[in-house]
Automatic annotation (TrEMBL):
One of its GO terms (biological process) is L-arginine biosynthetic process via ornithine. Keywords: Amino-acid biosynthesis, Arginine biosynthesis, ATP-binding, Cytoplasm, Kinase, Nucleotide-binding, Transferase. The gene is argB. This is Acetylglutamate kinase. The record marks K28, K250 as: Transition state stabilizer. Its EC number is 2.7.2.8. Catalyzes the ATP-dependent phosphorylation of N-acetyl-L-glutamate. The lineage of its organism: Bacteria, Pseudomonadati, Thermodesulfobacteriota, Desulfobacteria, Desulfobacterales. One of its GO terms (molecular function) is acetylglutamate kinase activity. Residues 24-269 form the Aspartate/glutamate/uridylate kinase domain.
């Protein structure tokens, strides 16, 4: 079991630091990994540390549970299909306020407290994330044909222009991106954060893509961690429903990021202290590696 002490991790890290210097690492920070203030501060410190040692981290965050909490308070019902929140205009307003406002700015503030210089943006800034309306195919029960679902203002990414991210990282800033995109006619889209992280990682040709969630990685039916998973196994596990919900887009888009040129992709448990450093800087690594 790897140590959880930062100093110990760093001693083991030296050869990796040399290898990773100057490279870009995209970190998807899932809403379920934002458990408490201590863990959030640890995350901010780990991201800042990466920048200090010459790596360029780009944070793409979610905030699903944080949106749910506000929707609950407002008495608005919410529903997910295949890991996507059905998004009407009212929901879109809440999503944009929570993700682009509260969640984004609190990550920026915590990185600042840790000594880093973060800039919080959404996919709308600098024309970064272009999107169009997504349609969702839901498997029919038994022999029933698949159902086509209109998810409202849920977007699929059509294009990522990474210029703004490159400008920020080149100037020493840490970009923190909320997963909101813009359509051809200026309309706002709610995009699953895993999707945005994977597409940004591909657009940047990232060396690593790390998806932080609230489970140790992809688990089998006995809840045992799968250390590496490839396309065939992902397909099998989705069709026999041992992979469901938010894990579906995570894996599907992680695979497309790898085909898009990302070096390596790992799904790890962000509720474990310093999991990011343990993944990057230890031989054993943690979590699940996704392979083509
Ligand atoms: N086979 C599986 N292995 C691990 N987690 C799974 C699996 N199938 C579904 N999940 C669910 O996926 C969740 C992670 O996805 P999601 O809820 O979107 O998290 P995040 O907000 O971190 O992106 C896990 O908490 C778990 O409930
Ligand atoms: C379309 C869609 O589902 N968008 C997500 C965006 C936030 C997100 O992805 O957050 P997590 O990474 O914490 O799950 C949502 O509305 O919850």
């Amino acid at each position: 079991m790897p140590s959880q002490n930062v100093a110990d991790i760093l001693i083991e890290a030296l050869p990796y630091i040399r290898q990773f210097a100057g490279s870009t690492i995209v970190v998807k920070y899932g809403g379920h990994a934002m458990v408490d203030e201590q863990l959030k501060m640890d995350f901010a410190r780990d991201i800042t540390l990466l920048k200090y040692i010459g790596i360029n981290p780009v944070v793409v965050h979610g905030g699903g549970p944080q949106i749910n909490e506000v929707m609950d308070r407002m008495g608005i019902k919410t529903q997910f299909v295949r890991g996507m929140r059905l998004t009407d205009a009212e929901t879109m307003d809440v999503v944009e306020m929570v993700l682009g406002g509260k969640v984004n700015k609190s990550i920026v503030a915590q990185i600042a407290q840790a000594g880093g210089r973060a800039v919080g943006i959404t996919g709308k800034d600098g024309g970064m994330v272009s999107a169009r309306k997504m349609t969702i195919m839901k498997e029919g029960a038994g022999d029933a044909p698949p159902e086509i679902i209109d998810p409202g203002l849920v977007g699929e990414v059509t294009h990522v222009n990474p210029d703004i991210l490159k400008t920020l990282t080149d100037r020493g800033f840490i970009p923190v991106v909320a997963p909101v995109g813009v359509g051809e006619n200026g309309e706002t889209y709610n995009i699953n954060a895993d999707v945005v992280a994977c597409r940004i990682a591909a657009a940047l040709g990232a060396f690593r893509l790390i998806l932080l969630t609230d489970v140790d990685g992809v688990l089998d039916r006995d809840k045992k961690l799968i250390h590496s998973i490839d396309t065939g196994e992902v397909r099998r596990m989705i069709s026999d429903e041992s992979i469901v919900g938010g894990m579906i887009p995570k894996l599907e888009y992680a695979l497309s990021a790898l085909s898009g040129g990302v070096g390596k992709c790992h799904i790890i448990n962000g509720t474990r202290r310093h999991s990011l450093l343990l993944e990057l800087f230890t031989d054993q690594g943690i979590g699940t590696e996704v392979l083509l």
